[in-house]
Each structure stands twice: as structure tokens, then as C-alpha cells.
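Sample entry (254 residues):
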Amino acid sequence: MQLHSNILGAGRPFVILHGFLGMSDNWKTLGRKFSELPFEVHLVDQRNHGRSPHSDTFNYDVLVEDLKEYCNAHNLKDIILLGHSMGGKTAMQFAATYPEYVSKLLVADISPRFYPVHHDTILKGLESLDFETLSSRGDADEQMANYVTDFGTRQFLLKNLYWKEKGKLGLRINLEVLTEHVGEVGEALPAQAKFDKDTLFLRGDKSEYIGPQDEALINVHFTNASIITISNAGHWLHAENPEDFYNAVVNFIN
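Predicted structure, serialized as C-alpha cells:
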């Protein structure tokens, strides 16, 4: 599968993977900053997200193979790989499966463990959008507010809206398949997966995705891992405290 991406700058390759229901555009601001260092930043849309192709198959095994195919197509070697949430799970499994492709790994606010499904309300909200009657993003926000009370979360989700044709909105994500396979998103990293190169886990101080109980498991899979906490940030730490997030990433890479 040929994944869509935005490529910024020139230099050493730095690949960034978004989370569930996100897209490469979520990383544009930070991606530009990283590209000035200089890196060749690849902001990748994973399958069924953003502008990448849709498929009925959705699990971490295929997401990993998609990324390998992407690296081969763009002749990327010794990449710095950063993934957030679902993208972090893809990044972990990719690094463990194909360590020869990765020089350094960064994982944003996700642990290798299993997570129970917790996106039900969000998916129901997206399913509730009636594209026959919607005429603006404001209309969509009003409909979504019945399911998702947090304004910031709604704005993040509604980035998936686009004009399919004049006067008709649609969603870029493959909502049907992502809803059907949502259980895959929380799957644990395979027990045998190991990666021994430099790895950084970043967690938000207001997030519960990486707790003290996760630290031992992280060290089992990633023998050269460190964990740092970004202050004043929840799960979307790169958006909530971009300055500290950026500084932590750059310090680790250098």
C-alpha cells in the first residue's frame, strides 16, 4: 500500500506517525520545526487515515508492513521514528521487527501493554454525522457535541472533514473499518518484540496512558529506554505543550 505523506526539509530522515483518528496534518507545525534542524521530515498518513488508501484489513502487522514499504519506496535508512498513541504502537512494533531501519525510536504517550476499547463514544459521534444535512463544520461540531463534550477533542476529530464536492462534506477516515476493528488499536506489543537501540518514551503528566506500572514492561521490550514526563499535558502532549515536547525530542536526538 502506497501511503500518503507530507515531506518537509532535507537531511537525515525523521518519520512521524499520528494516532488513531488523526492524520499527518496534526504534526505540520512541529514537523516544520524539526525540518529546520535540518531533518527530512516524513509526516505519514497510516492506512484508513488522512489521504492514504482505505482497506478492509486493519491491524499492527499490516501497519508495520505499510511503513516498511514506505521506507523502501523513499529509500529511507537509519530513520529516527516517532509515533504518538496508535502511531507509537506501530513504531514500537516496526522497530522491533525491522531494527535495521531505525536508529532512534520515540514513543509519545503509549505503553506496550494492552488497552481496552475506549473510543466508543467518539466513534458513535462520528457515525452520527448526517452528511445529507450538514452544510458547515459548525453544523458538524454541534452534532458531535451531543457525544463529545470536550471542544479540543471535537476540533481534533473534525479535522477529518473535507469537501467531497461542492456543498457536500465527508470524512477522510475509513470510519466503517476503523469502528469494526477498533479492538486492534489497544492490542499489546507481541511478547517477543525487543529493540535495544536508544528509545525515548514521552508521557503527559495529566495522562494515564503510561503509569508507574508500565515502566517495568517498557524495559522488558526496550532495553535502552528512558521515560520523561511533559508537564501541563495530557494524551495530546505534542499539541498541549509543544515547546517542552520539541525540546525533549531534540535533546534526545542530539
